[in-house]
Design goal:
8 strands, 5-stranded antiparallel sheet, 2 domains, alpha+beta
Length: about 180
């Protein structure tokens, strides 16, 4: 089913061949990890919460994280959480959320689509996370003061936690030259 990576929906008629899938989908629906939609055609789509669970499961399985703590940031394109690794070190995990209503222009402003006509917001979030991870690694290797890139999976980027005050909370006084 690799050809579904850019699609929002999986059509029900494709699922009927596989035993036990309907029972599993009902359990996922109850947990709001998938959504059933029959407005255009009868199908299921992964919800952002379901995508979060897949990323968390992969990071836990790799031993990158052992616990998720409080939310420490919310932005127009991501949510940031405190997480713990196996050594008890507090890290930051950023979950990319492209497609929020306030950030719909991303398809025009970013190069993620590469001439595609159809796309999934979850897939675009995954591309944004991979790109951020690669840039963070490159900048860190070049000596720039950025958080240490630790791991990434799907739309999640795991990084060192920088213990500092956000600039928006700092009072900055601008001095004119000569005064």
């Amino acid at each position: 089913m690799a050809h579904y990576k850019c699609h929002d929906m999986l059509k029900v008629w494709r699922l009927n061949r596989h035993g036990g899938v309907v029972r599993c989908l009902k359990a996922l629906l109850r947990q709001k990890l998938v959504h059933h939609d029959n407005s255009r055609y009868d199908g299921y789509r992964l919800t952002p919460l379901g995508y979060d669970f897949l990323a968390l499961k992969a990071l836990v399985a790799r031993g990158a994280i052992t616990a998720v703590g409080r939310q420490i940031g919310v932005g127009k394109e991501s949510d940031v959480f405190e997480v713990l690794n196996a050594d008890g070190e507090v890290l930051a995990m950023k979950l990319h959320r492209l497609g929020r209503t306030s950030f719909r222009a991303v398809k025009k402003k970013r190069d993620y689509l590469q001439h595609r006509n159809s796309f999934s917001w979850l897939w675009l979030s995954r591309l944004a996370a991979a790109k951020e991870y690669a840039f963070m690694e490159a900048l860190g290797s070049a000596g720039f003061p950025v958080p240490r890139a630790i791991d990434h999976n799907r739309h999640a980027v795991l990084m060192s936690l920088v213990n500092a005050v956000p600039l928006v909370q700092e009072h900055v006084q601008v001095h004119a030259h000569g005064s």
